[in-house]
Amino acid sequence: MAERQDWPEVPGEYRTGTEDSPVAIAVIGKASADVPSDCYRIMGTLRSANIGVEKVVVNMLANPRLRFLLVCGREDGHYPGDALVKLAENGIDDRNNIIGAHAQFPCLPDLDRDSVERFRSQVEVVDLLHPKDSKGDIDWEDPLYVFDDERNRELEATARQCARRDPGPYPGGALHITIPGMMQERGDLGDMLNMEVGRMTDLMLRMPIDNLTTDALNITVSEDFALVIDPIDGLLLEVPTVTFHKRFKSYLTGNE
Predict the structure, then answer these.
(1) Are 67 and 152 part of one and the same domain?
(2) Which one of 12, 16, 83, 240 has the fewest CB atoms closer than 10 angstroms to its CB?
(3) Do 36 and 78 fall into the same domain?
(4) Mean pLDDT, contiguous 10-residue spans, the chain (256 residues)
(5) Do 31 and 133 have their domain in common?
(6) 247-to-7, 51, 95, 201, 236 alpha-carbon distances in Å
(7) Of 103, 61, 99, 68, which Cα lies nearest the Cα of 82?
């Protein structure tokens, strides 16, 4: 089955390679890998264990030709690589949290279990993370990490090995998932989430302890454009997705 002309379906930082390749590559953070474009169909960056992973899943499911996902780079405090590997190994629980993931908020609120199980059935995730350990510090600047020659050769060799094991397109065909808000370019999601952390922290610090009410429901202005009003401070907010914002706010305020 041919992929749609507007694939990938959700925006992100990526480059495309050979159309018939069954391999996708997720590079953690601002790492820079240098491999021939005939080794992959798509190679992009992964910076978060939630929205970033959701975008990977949506784009992979929309292209049944993709059967392998190589996760590579240096793990950071967000633990996005670990979240993707654990998703393939364990799936999600009843709260849409990735089972066994080390990340602070490894939640996929905009995906249902059927979609996750389809991803696990369609895609073989290959763990090439190194180093895997992290001090747990989140660096919102994501400093550049350049692959050395050995790492580049490992990545290319693994991609070519996967291509030789290509089982062909997934028999279930393409699965198109529409997530309002995510279908548009949201800018830098890392900056957006960092601002949300700062905003909620500042609100809680300014509230008297006996009036600390942070569980007020958001007012949805637009699902399609991901706009909400937070009644705590009355601000109109542009968020990654409405569903994600509700869960993230609940996590930040200790209501998870």
Answers:
(1) yes
(2) 16
(3) yes
(4) 67 90 92 92 92 94 97 86 96 97 92 97 96 62 78 97 98 90 60 60 55 53 54 59 76 66
(5) yes
(6) 28, 12, 10, 16, 17
(7) 103
